[in-house]
Amino acid sequence: MALAAMCCASATAQEKLFNSANVQSPVVNPDGTVTFNLFAPKAVKVEVTGDFLPTRPIEIPGGGKYDAPGVAALTEGPGGVWTYSTDKLAPELYSYTFNIDGMTGVKDPANIYVNRDIVSFSNIFIVSEQKGDKGDLYRVNEVPHGNLSKVWYNSPTLKMQRRMTIYTPPGYDKGGKYPVLYLLHGAGGDENAWSELGRAAQILDNLIATGKAKPMIVVMPNGNPNCQAAPGEWSWGMYTPGFMNGGTGPTAPAVATIPASFMDIVNYVDANYRTVKKREGRAVCGLSMGGGHTFAISLTYPTTFDYYGLFSAGLHLGKDFKMNQPFSEQIKNDPDFAQQSERLFGSKPKLYWMGMGKTDFLYQSTVDLRNYWDSKGYKYEYVETEGGHIWRNWRIYLTMFAQKIFK
Length: 407
Known about the structure:
This protein is an alpha+beta fold. The protein has helices at residues 2-21, 134-138, 193-196, 200-209, 258-272, 289-300, 327-333, 337-346, 363-376, 391-402; strands at 27-28, 34-39, 46-50, 56-59, 65-68, 70-73, 75-76, 81-85, 92-100, 103-106, 114-117, 120-127, 147-155, 160-168, 180-184, 217-221, 282-287, 307-311, 351-357, 381-385.
C-alpha cells in the first residue's frame, strides 16, 4: 500500500510536470515583448494583473492612495489556451498573477518562480537586454557569490531570541574586516523580504563583481518588535501575517521599539563577524516602515552610523505612526526634533540619502522633512523616481545607495 501511494504521488507530479511543459508561460520574446499563456478550457474570463501594466490608484483606509498593478484581458485561442502579449518591456524584474472567472491572485501553473509579499503570492520573471541593465543586475550571473545565512541572536532589550538574514560578501572566508550595511524592510515584511523580494544578494554580488560597490556585510533583521522571525519559522507557527503586525499573528505589545533595540543587533554583529567597528564602517537604510526606523535610528544614534538611506520612508515622530497627521505638524509639535536634527547634522555624517516615488502615498511627509531641513541648511541627497510605493523603486534605491557608501 505504501509503495502504491508513492507511485501514485510520483505519477501525479509527473503528470503535472508534463502538462505544464505543454504550455510555456511567460515567454520573453526576442523583440522585448512578453507572452502569457494559460490552459483553462472551461474558463469564461481570464485576466493578467502585473506591475508591467498601467497602475490603478487604490484608496488606503485612513487616507491616501497607492498604485495597484494594472489588469489586461487574455484572449482564448485554440485548445482552450488563453493568451496575452505585452508591449515591449524595459529591463526589470516583474511580477504577475491571473484572474480567472472572478478568482483573483491565481498563480501561473507553467511558472515555478514565485515570491511572497506579506500574504500575497505572485509569479516573477526577468527581462534583460544587455549586460549591466536592471534585469541583469537582479539575476544570478557567473560572478563570485556571497553567502546568505539565517542567524539567531539574543535581544536583551526586546527580551527574546530573534532571527535575521546576513549576507557575507565573496571572499569573506579569506579574512579581513568589512563594513556593514543594515538593510531594513517595510510593514508586513520580515527578515526574508530583502533577500527574496529585494534581490539584495544578487544586487550586491553583481555590484561588487564590477567594482561599483565595496565588499560589505549586509544585515537584514526582522523589523517587527513582537516577532522573533518570519511567519511559520518560529514558535508561533503557521499564522497569517498582516500589515503592521496584523493578521492572525502575535498580538502582545512589544516591550520596546526596533530603534530602541537596534544596538542589540549591532553589538551581536560586531561580536560575531569581522566588522569595521567604527562609524565609518556602518550604514543603515530601509524602505517604508524600515525607512521610518532608519530615520529614528539617525536621530537616536547620530554618531554610530556614517551613512543613512530613507527609501519611501514612513516618517513619524513619537511612538505611533500618525497616518492622518501631516508630518509638518508633527515636526512643529515635537519638543526634541529640532535639537536631535541639529545634533545629527552637527556630527557630519558622510551621507544622508532619500529616495521617493513621484506618486508614493508617503510623498508629502518627505517633502515636509526636506522643507524643514532645507530651512536649517542641513545637507542631504534626494532622488525622485517614477511610480509609487513599490519594490521596483526600492531595488533601484538599494542599487544607488550601495554604490555611494564606504568609499
